[in-house]
Amino acid sequence: MASPDDSSDATPASQSPQGELPLPFPEFSGDLPLLPARMVNEFQYCPRLAYLEWVQGEWADSVDTVDGRYRHRRVDTPSGDLADPADTAPDSRQHARSITLSSNRLGLIARMDIVEADGDIATPVDYKRGKRPHVARGAYDPERVQLCVQGLILEEHGFTVPAGALYYAESKERVRVEFDDELRALTRSAVDGLRHIAAGGHIPPPLVDSPKCPRCSLVGICLPDEVNFLARMTEPPRPLAVPREDALPLYVQARGAKVSKSGETLEVFVDDQKVAIARLGETSQVVLQGGVYLTSPALHELMAREIPVTWLSHGGWFLGHTVGLGHKNVEIRTAQYRASFDDRHCLRLARGFVAAKIRNARTLLRRNWKRGELPADLLDEFRRDIEQAERAGNLQTLLGVEGNAAARYFRHFREMLGNTDSMSASFDFQKRNRRPPADPVNALLSYAYSLLARSVSVAATAVGFDIYRGFYHQPRYGRPALALDLMEPLRPLIAESAVIMAINNAEVRPTDFLSAAGAVSLTGDGRKRFIASFERRLSQEVTHPMFGYRVSYRRLLELQARLLARHLLGEIPEYPNFTTR
Question: What is the DSSP string of 451-508?
Answer without folding.
Answer: HHHHHHHHHHHHHT--TT--SSSPP-TT--HHHHHHHGGGIIIIIIHHHHHHHHTTSS
